[in-house]
Amino acid sequence: MKRIVLFILLSLGLTGCQSGIIEKLVKAPEVKSVQLKSFSAQNKTITFDVGLFNPNSFSLPIDGFNGGVTLNGLDVGRFAATTETSLAAQETQTISLPITLDAEAFGRAARSVLSEGKALYNFNGGVDTSVGQVPFSQDGELSMQDIIKTLMPSFAF
Q1: What is the number of structural domains in the chain?
Q2: Is the entire prediction scored with pTM above 0.85?
Q3: CA 73 from centroid of its chain's CA atoms
Q4: What is the C-alpha to C-alpha distance for residues 155 and 144, in angstroms, rounded to an integer?
Q5: Which of 29-33, 56-60, 81-85, 97-101 reaches the highest mean pLDDT?
Q6: For residue 78, how far is the Cα from the chain centroid?
Q7: In this structure, are strands 74-87 and 30-40 parallel, antiparallel, or unpaired?
């Protein structure tokens, strides 16, 4: 009986410590690049290609992504995508993230991009892996050239 109680207490103790151990052993993927891939005002979607670097010495299985994006400080959309892929050890891979836009918020953000001449973004979310969710955050700026090319693909630079 004492062995069973000891086993249960040990199991509960290890379960409580497991999340801290995982956070120390698994490094968060790093966002290396963000490129605007497509935009559809009709479908209220925007897709970004995100280059994710796996700093770990082992491949990291990915089940999905979720989070949000701001443009010039305004929340414009949420993203959630499922996938059955792995990030190769110490390599960068490009993943396409479709984002559902809040049409009203995106309209305000688009006006700020045109008036300010810049498009500052922030991705904040998590990568769902087999060992739990690994958070990531990335700030950056989209070039006006990228935005114009996406909105008007036949426009040449």
Answers
A1: 1
A2: no
A3: 17
A4: 13
A5: 56-60
A6: 10
A7: unpaired
Q: Which residues contact 40 (CB under 8 A, 6 or more apart)?
A: 46
Within a domain: residue 126? yes
Return phi, psi of residue 17, to 5°.
-85, -15
CA 146/CA 62 separation, integer angstroms: 28
Q: How many CB atoms lie within 10 A of CB 133?
A: 15
Question: pLDDT for 109-153, tens place per residue?
Answer: 878 888 888 888 888 888 787 667 777 777 888 777 666 665 555
CATH number, residue 147: 2.60.40.1820
Sign of torsion, CA 92 118 78 18? positive
